[in-house]
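User: I'm curious whether this sequence folds into something compact or stays loose and floppy. Could you predict its structure so I can see for myself?
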Amino acid sequence: MNKKLKGISLLTLAAVILISVAVVGVNLSKKHAAEEAAAKLAAEKTRIAAEKALKAEKEKEAFSDLQSQLNSYIGSDKSRIGLIYFDLEVGTSIEINPDMEFAAASTVKVPMNITLLDLAQKGVIDFDSSVQYTESDYEGGTGILQGQDRTKPIPLRTLSEYSIKYSDNIATQMIIRTIGRDRMYDTFSKIAGHEVAETGNLTTPANNAAYLKRLYTNPNNNPYYAFLIANMKNTIFHDRIDKYIPQEITAHKIGNYSSYVNDIAIIYTKRPYVLVVFTNGVADAPEKIAQISKMIYKYQIGLK
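Assistant: Here's the prediction. I'll summarize afterward.
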């Protein structure tokens, strides 16, 4: 081999060696970078897990405080109150006498409207139709139709709105006549998951929590449910659940009958929740409900 060829071979060998060293260096650098990335990822996961654990512990402590506050505030009225709080996002709940029977009073107008709107979605009832008033529909008490001309047919949408916004009793009777009482109670039973009493207009906090969960989750994507929720937010009654909390996020329906004073609601905070409160023979019951609602709202908006 002459000197020229020998020189070229040595240069080639040197180049190969240099390239090999460079490749090894690159691979080591990539390995080191990958190890650093894995370490950072592990550290981040550890940090997130620690934050979640701390958050869970704080929520647990706040929830325990809320339970204590409610029990202390309700005090001796516990046997006369039925209450359900239910966080619609995570399922946290507080229940007091959930299966105790109370007079539903006008809270029945929420599941009544759910029945109407379900029938409208199925095409059984035309929600854009009108209903002719009859003398059998008359009922005094709350509402505005008692003082209005009722000789002409009234749009079903108007009846639905009035039954919630003004708690109109005539509108309610006209809706029940349209949908059928038996069909209405069949819907109540289906949503509640058990047979619901059809006499005495009796109900339980658990039944009403089920009705509100149905309205919120809207499992059949009923386009009419938004109409009911909007009317519940626009009610003229504000002396209970929404007395001390924002009215514009509170979709609720009150009810009064004799010694029974009630309110049921979906409250659309960042983490929406259901609040159902029924009372029987409780002194200054509207204020009692309002203070209970205020406590729960304060707890709920403190959650992150």
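Summary: Helices lie at 3-74, 109-122, 156-165, 169-179, 181-192, 205-217, 225-233, 285-301. The chain is about 50% helix and 15% strand.
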